[in-house]
Amino acid sequence: MSLFGPNELIEDVINKNLCIGCGACIELCPYFRSYKGRTAMLFPCTKEEGRCYAFCPKIEVDLDRLSEFFFQAPYSGAPLGRYRSIHTAKAGPKADAGDFQAGGTVSALIGFALRKGYFDAAVLTDKEGILPVPRIITDPADVSRCSTSKYTSAPTLSALNQAVRQGYKHIGVVGTPCQVLAVAQMRMNPTAEPDFSDPIALTLGLFCTWSVYYRAFEPFIAARVDISRVIKVDIPPPPAEVMEIYTAEEKIEIGLDEIRELVPDTCSYCIDMTSEFADISVGVLEGRTDMNTLIVRTERGQKIVDEAVAEGFLVLEDMPGENLEHLQWAAGNKKKRAFAKAREEGMINGAEGTRSYLRVDPATVSDCIA
Amino acid sequence: MTGNALPKDPYNVIITGVGGQGNVLASRILANMLVRKGYAVTIGETFGASQRGGSVMSHLRVSRQGSWSPQIPKGKADVVVALEPTEAVRVLADYGNPDIMIVSNTRPVHSVGVIAGDLEYPPLEQTKKKAEELSARAWFIDATDEALKLGHPILGNVIMLGALAGMSPLPLDMEDFKAVMLTSLSADKLDINVRAFTLGRELVSH
Amino acid sequence: MSELFDGKEGTQHLLMGNEAIARGALEAGVRVAAGYPGTPSSEIIESLARVADKANMYVEWSVNEKVAMEVAAAGSFAELRSLTAMKQNGVNVASDFLLHLAGSGTRGGMVLVPCEDPGALSSINEGESRYFARMMELPLLEPGDFQEVKDMVKWAFELSEELRMLVVLRSVTRLSHASGMVTYGPLPPREATARFRHEGFVLDPQEGVLISAPVGYKHELQQGKIRKAREMFENSPFNTYTGPEKPEVLIITSSACTLYSKEAVHLLGLKDRVGILKLGTTWPLPVNLLTRYLSLTDTIFIVEEVIPFMEENIKVIAAERAAEIGIKKFYGKNDGTLPMVGELNPDFVIGALCKILNIEYKARPDEYTQAAQNIPFTGEAPHRELTFCPGCPHRASFWSIHNALELDGRKGFVCGDIGCYAMAMLPTGFSVVKTVHAMGSGSGIASGFGKLGQFHFDQPIVAVCGDSTFFHTAIPALINARHHKADFTLVILDNSGTAMTGFQPHPGLDVNALGDTVPSIDIADVCRSMGARVEVRDPFDLEETRKVLNELMEDEEGLKVLILRQICTLSPEKKAGKKYEMSINEEICIGENCGCNRLCTRIFRCPGLVWDTERQVTKLDEVICIGCGVCADICPAGAIQRKEAGIS
Prior knowledge:
The structure holds three protein chains of three kinds.
Chain A: H1 6-14, E1 32-35, E2 38-41, H2 51-55, E3 61-62, H3 63-71, E4 85-91, H4 105-116, E5 121-128, E6 131-137, H5 156-165, E7 171-175, H6 177-187, E8 200-206, H7 214-222, E9 230-234, E10 242-247, E11 251-255, H8 256-260, E12 280-285, E13 288-296, H9 299-310, E14 314-318, H10 321-344, E15 358-359, H11 362-369
Parallel strand pairs in A: 3-15, 5-7, 7-8, 8-12
Antiparallel strand pairs in A: 1-2, 4-13, 4-14, 5-6, 9-10, 10-11, 12-13
Chain B: E1 11-18, H1 23-36, E2 40-45, E3 55-63, E4 79-82, H2 85-95, E5 101-105, H3 112-116, H4 124-133, E6 137-141, H5 143-150, H6 155-167, H7 174-182, H8 190-203
Parallel strand pairs in B: 1-4, 4-5, 5-6
Antiparallel strand pairs in B: 1-3, 2-3
Helix pairs in contact in B: 1-7, 2-4, 5-6, 6-8, 7-8
Chain C: H1 3-6, E1 12-16, H2 17-27, E2 32-35, H3 42-55, E3 58-61, H4 65-77, E4 82-87, H5 88-104, E5 110-116, H6 130-135, E6 140-141, H7 146-163, E7 167-169, E8 171-172, H8 173-176, E9 178-183, H9 215-234, E10 240-242, E11 249-253, H10 257-268, E12 274-278, E13 281-283, H11 287-294, E14 299-303, H12 309-320, H13 322-325, E15 329-331, H14 346-357, H15 366-372, H16 393-408, E16 413-415, E17 433-435, H17 441-449, E18 461-466, H18 467-483, E19 488-494, H19 523-529, E20 533-537, H20 542-554, E21 559-565, H21 572-575, E22 580-584, H22 599-604, E23 609-612, E24 617-620, H23 630-634, E25 640-644
Parallel strand pairs in C: 2-3, 2-4, 4-5, 5-7, 5-8, 6-7, 11-12, 11-14, 14-15, 16-17, 16-18, 18-19, 19-21, 20-21
Antiparallel strand pairs in C: 1-9, 6-13, 10-12, 22-25, 23-24
């Protein structure tokens, strides 16, 4: 992994439309800002090395190094990444009720960790209308307002950078795979800050196959419904193939094929469907609207899940074999397509001193594509 | 008409500085002091946009023979009063000559290029050296610092005029200074200006 | 200067050219003076306004130059002497009325003083009005030194009354904004009576109607007046010759170039070889006088600024009289002896004379020139780029405009206008301004851009204009935009005065040029009455300004107006005291490190902040800082701190 600065970030990520707007470069300095889902650089910066570049999940990501750091083993290339256990899960009886998507697992875990003091703050994604808005949450009662999925990319990590600056030391972060990747890089202290201590108490990763830019989504929805009346947007688990837009009076269904037209190109380079560098990953469970899939990847993830179960905040069940198989098939497919595309475009393992999208053992890439 | 003979006719003075330093007012005071001595003075000044942070110059032509060009011909300045040190040196590129005399304030005003880090501001020693090398004699005085001690930075310009009175052959005396100041100043403020003018004269006396 | 009015007849005073113009007008008994501020003309009206009461005058800063000329014309129609003064560009604005006025004729003496800016020292062009005099068939006078400035202004009124037509007296920066010695003449009595006579025979010049029709009749009348002016100019004392009886070279010059020519001849010691014919009357040219002097030699050198107006017209005379005076060799602009652009100075004339006469001149030893000439390029004297003043509201406004455009991300841009804020095409305004033309043109151009949607034009458009510019010519453009549903956002940078030219009042203020309390016109009300969405903010509230701008840019419902109200730093009110005491906590200044990289000094660039290279922190220059407090909101670390200052 080589270090570069804001100018390379502009050149490699923003100008090549690889930026998904995760917020990792926001709130570090006054130069990068996010507005309605788009990351903008306000003024030129002359730094040759910067955290903006080092944290970015879309450039110079060294998968083996990350994997060694978090799992003490190189990047496996397995469809679901490295993990300890996999379950189906839902919020337990002690968890706060809320308007959850699926089983409410994420809200239950975050609420639990805040209540127990494992987190001094949680970085979540709230929304204003249909615009996702990053939030620093410290009161467990506020967790539920950030529940439900957002299908547009959000600069959530700007709130993480803000929380770090405000001095929070045990932060729980909920993010998409790209955001989780950025958080993993942050935790490695890539710019070797002198007094660094890892401020992340837990990374809770979401499953994601794509997201849409807000700036494409907003006019698309506005053409179909008065945005100010929208109260919820949902995509029920497969095999359903629709997005549901709820207003107080009605439910509008939009075919996913129409939505996919809006998906930015950058998502097609993403090799990670299940947030492989999270402590815990959570997603939908195919065919069930009342349960989530839950992947436990690290020891500290395991610890918090075990305690949450023990204290009645979370209920686990075994993952049915066919669900696991299908999840692996889907995640493997995404990984395969993305690796193939990136390799074909020369974006993997460029010569030392040049910039690459990904760095990883070439054999792993070949295995994934095969 | 009374007054001393000048070494040259027209005798050419440049007051230079940065927009906002009070250059125009200083040139007016100086010119009116000379008018009181019976000279015909022509002044050329830069106004307008260049006042916003740019270099600003006043050209004074002091003569017994009426109006001259408001722009001094190249290489023909006789004395330079610089309200800012690098401006003293800048003037020499166009108007300097081996016989020129310079009196300069030492207080820098950084240009935006310097503030932004695109340009470097030269150390005062370097500026002094260049000014000495390209003049018959150069005086550098801490006019702004002295003015701050007197209570207001704008008095720096009066100190500079006092210094000019001390180092140049121009007939600039206290009586004329007072008379000119009183046309635009209330009497209670005269005293501090007189002190500044006297101080300027003393600063070049050694 | 009360001296302008109170100075005794026969006493000598050091006057700025514009003050000399004002004194000349006072000696002529001018009663009405109107103008619009513009460098280098503003001090004429200002000086007159200051003594208006004593002199029994009406003086106003009009809403624009066309109206100023109309106001002054009314004075003339009522048999008073009147003057209108403006920057050259103002003549362009007033030119439509000027053509009609030339046709209708005048009654009381009326003088137009356009002040031109060769070299564009304070302008964004170096336009000329001399061709207006020719095109509109009006007499044109050009004084050549300060005494003449005063004397010719006085004469211009007499000439105007004799001809019953407007007289143009052209000044330039190096006269208007230079100073020299002027001996005063007497002032006329204070009393005057205004009366517009209109009941006589329609064609009667003193008692009929004032109109440029019947055109054939009036036009012929006008040309007759111009012929009469030509005859008068043949013997004008303002056309003078200095030099030998048989010069080798005849310089023909006018205006400030007279002084340059005189200086060049003096420095080169050529007074026995070169003669100078100085023309004070440059349109119509005195043909017989010129014929006489052209006969003196075959080598003619014409010195003028900017375009070759005299040169081309004198060549016509030389051609017409060739049989009589022989073939001449002309030096000037057309042959490249003098530059076709920029202002002249003694050195240009010296260089040209050396070339024409094949002589050498050295202003100073070569060694000195070698050592000195590169000073501006060697870091000895770092370049001074223009910048907004410390504490200028425009810096804050453009910071927010810039950030709003960048966040918006659709390659939006700003249509600029005329005022200090035109500097926003430079880094001091974060280079957001991409077009600057005439007064009010920013709004007009934006109105045009705002109609390009059908061609897939999707860039957001922001126009800016100052409060004075708004009244001057932006209003018709806004009405146009609103009526045609052009989509753009106008940001009105309202700093409560005509700041660039010295803070003259305008219709948005409750005071006029004379200091009287007058009704003010509210900019927001005007815009709302057009049906525009109007927001008013304080530009020092950076984030709020940015936010509302983004919102307005996204509101695609036609004309939106954001008024950013904060008084100019140079206003007397602001100069009175600092709002905040500023300080810098060096402990928390991030400096060049990741997380700031000197945002305040590298990007924001207020002259009140200085980067200390050695200690790697930002310092405050307390002599320059005016305590606006804005930089505290720029600093990402909170190192720049403000606390309310007790305003004394």
